[in-house]
Amino acid sequence: MSRKPPSKAVLENKKLVFAVPESNKSRLAGKLRYWWCWTLAGTLLLIVGIPSLIFLGIINRKMWLYPVARWGAAQWLKACGATINVTGKEHLDPNEQYVFISNHRSYLDTATLFFYTGHKIGLVAKKELLKVPVLGQGMHYVNIFAIDRSNPDRAKRSMEKARKVMESGSSFGVFAEGTRAMPGELLPFKKGAFHLALQTGARIVPVAIRNTDMMMGKRTGVAYPGTIEMSLLPPVNIEGKEIADLITEVRGMVAEELGK
Q1: 104: which of 30, 121, 161, 175 fits an S-S bond (Cβ 3.0–4.6 Å)?
Q2: Is it the case that residue 2 has pLDDT exceeding 60?
Q3: Distance separating alpha carbons of residues 164 and 97, to the nearest angstrom
C-alpha cells in the first residue's frame, strides 16, 4: 500500500499537532472516574500484587508474575471504561520477536500495549515508576525496565537488559517519544528503540494508539469511557538502514495513521 511522502516535521523529527475535538462530557464525572481508576489501580496492587510477590518469592517463581500483571492490566482498562479495538494483527508472525514502537499520550497506552499486541512483550518505562510501592518492586519480573534518560550509562544498561529479554524469546515495546505527549501531539522520537532493533535484528512494528488522550490525557485530571484504537502497522525491515532513516519511516507511518 502506498503512503504519503513524509511531511517536513516528520523528516526533521519535530513535534506534530493534530486537531483534538472539544469534549462536551461532564468534568465532574470525569474527575470522579479519574480517581476511581487510580483507586482501583492501588487496590489491585494491594490485594493482588503484594500477595503474588510474596507467594511467588517464597516458591522462587517470580517470573510467574507476568500473567498476573497481564490480567491486572486488562482488568484496569475494563474498570476505566475502555473498550479496545486492535487492527493489524494479520501483519505479524506469532513466532517472531518484534520491537513495537508506539506513540504515547496516556497511562492507558501502557496497559493496552502490554496486553493487546498478541505477543509476550516487555516494556521500557520511565524511572519514576520504580518509586511506586509494589509496582516498582514487580516491574523487573514482568520485563518492564525503567530508563533514566538523564544518565546515558544507566539508560544504556537498561537497553542492554531489554536486548537480553528479546534474545530469550520476548518482543519489546517502547514509547519512542520518551514521555506522554499532550492531547493531539506527536513528539520527536528518541533513538533508543531503534538501537534496540538494530542490535537484535528484530523488525520494527509501528504502533498508533488513538483516543487515549481524550479518555485520560496528560494533565487533564479527568477520565472518560471510550474505545481505544490500536493499529499495528506492517513491520519495517531494518537491514541496510540508518537510524535516521528508520525514525523517519516509522514516525511517518505512525503520524499518517494518527491523522486519519
Answers
A1: 175
A2: no
A3: 12
Q: How many domains does the chain have?
A: 1
In a domain, 71, yes or no: yes
| CA-angle at 38, arms to 36 and 41, nearest 5° | 110
| Helix H or strand E segment including 126 | strand 121-126
* 148 phi/psi in degrees, rounded to 5: -95, 95
Q: How far apart are the first and last CA of the chain?
A: 15
Q: What residue ranges in 171-233 does DSSP mark as E strands?
A: 171-175, 185-186, 203-210, 226-232
Here the CATH number for the domain that contains residue 72 is: 3.40.1130
pTM: 0.91
In-domain check, residue 14: no
| pLDDT at residue 158 is higher than 80 | no
